[in-house]
Amino acid sequence: MATSILNFAFTVPVAAAGASNQYKLMTFDASGDAALASAGGDVEGVMQNTPAAIGDAAELWRGGITKAHAGAAVSIGDNIASDATGRAVTAVAGDSIVGVALTAAGAAGVIFSMLQVDRSDAGNGALSRVLADVASGAALSVAGNGQTPIVTVGAETRTMADASYAGQLRLLYFKTDGGDCVITFASPIDQLGTLTYTFDDVGEYLLLVGVEDGADVEWRIAGQDNGHGSDENVIADPGTGVAIPVTASGSIAITTAAAETNTLAIPTFVGQRLTLFVDTYAVGDRVVTAASAINVANNTIMTFGAVSESITLQAITVAGALAWTIAANDNVSLS
């Protein structure tokens, strides 16, 4: 499925009208009007609308993710250039690279998703450099901008350290699906505290940008398609007598073997979410005691006493202090 995520839009008069030019690559003619890009030539934007007549406004997108009109078959991860009529094709030596294919096009005329790159970027496109995938369990490179095609031969994992500098761009996409790939990051990649991301279908992608977070430089999600982030973040059941981790959002499948207890500290950040549910109930309840009230009734104790009971907590502030509040509750006893 082709998708679009706007970065910068502008309008200029169009030199030639026609609905068939929607999602084609455009440049400027001698009058400054929008005209179809030439083979391998520079591109100023991708036309989003269908101007009815010469001189009407052409809406061009530059940067971000856009739909593009293929001039031939295109594969995921291909560097993209213009053909002689402004259609997007796989770049060859000497072409001005204007994007990276995020979805495939099986033939000319197919609309696909393309990440646009600025033709002024070093290396003819910030993401034109391919950074090789690694073996399961190994660390993905964080050296500079680039794209990494993920290839699996079974259920696999990767790790990824923090960004090297603010503004760094990394594109990860699932090229070959031999099994799910779970990537674990050194720091959260969104404001929900997501630390893991799961690719489970060919064509899924994750676009990351390096941002400053205090003294650190961390990754943040700039774009994605169909992968699974914070909702899929599984936090291991810590067992009885210890604190439930509160470093990230996620879900905890509780397994009881006797009467058991846990503590729950205050959340780490506003918007954090934790879902606790009973996956296996053997003997005895699991009693979780929060550090502060989790509702207006000032309850702090959650008692899980049967399979499938669940509660979802969300982080808010009360008088400026972080606290949990109940977002959903299915039969968990409160006291």
Write the layout of secondary structure elements.
Layout: E1 5-13, E2 25-28, E3 34-36, E4 45-47, E5 57-69, E6 79-82, E7 88-90, E8 99-101, E9 111-116, E10 139-140, E11 146-151, E12 156-160, E13 169-176, E14 181-185, E15 196-199, E16 205-213, E17 216-225, E18 242-244, E19 250-256, E20 260-264, E21 273-281, E22 286-290, E23 301-304, E24 310-318, E25 321-330, E26 333-334
Parallel strand pairs: 10-12, 11-13, 12-14, 18-20, 19-21, 20-22
Antiparallel strand pairs: 1-5, 2-3, 2-4, 4-5, 5-9, 6-7, 6-8, 8-9, 13-16, 14-15, 16-17, 21-24, 22-23, 23-26, 24-25
- Second-tier CATH architecture of the largest domain: Beta Barrel
Q: Can you write the helix and strand succession as a string?
A: EEEEEEEEEEEEEEEEEEEEEEEEEE
- Alpha-carbon Rg, integer: 25 Å
Count helical runs: 0
Helix content: under 10%
CATH class of the largest domain: Mainly Beta
E-strand count? 26
N→C terminal distance: 48 Å
CATH topology category name of the largest domain: Virus Head Decoration Protein, Chain: A
What low-confidence regions span 5 or more consecutive residues with pLDDT below 50?
A: 119-125
Indicate the structural class.
mainly beta
- Major beta sheet, specifics? 9 strands, antiparallel
Chain-averaged pLDDT: 87
Query: What general form does the structure show?
Result: elongated
Structural notes for this entry:
The chain has 335 residues and is mainly β. The protein folds into three domains: 5-116, Virus Head Decoration Protein, Chain: A, CATH 2.40.300; 139-230, Jelly Rolls; 234-334, Jelly Rolls. 0% of the residues lie in helices and 45% in strands. The protein has no helices and 26 strands. A hairpin with a 5-residue loop joins strand 6 and strand 7. 38% of the residues are buried. Residues 119-125 have low confidence and may be disordered.
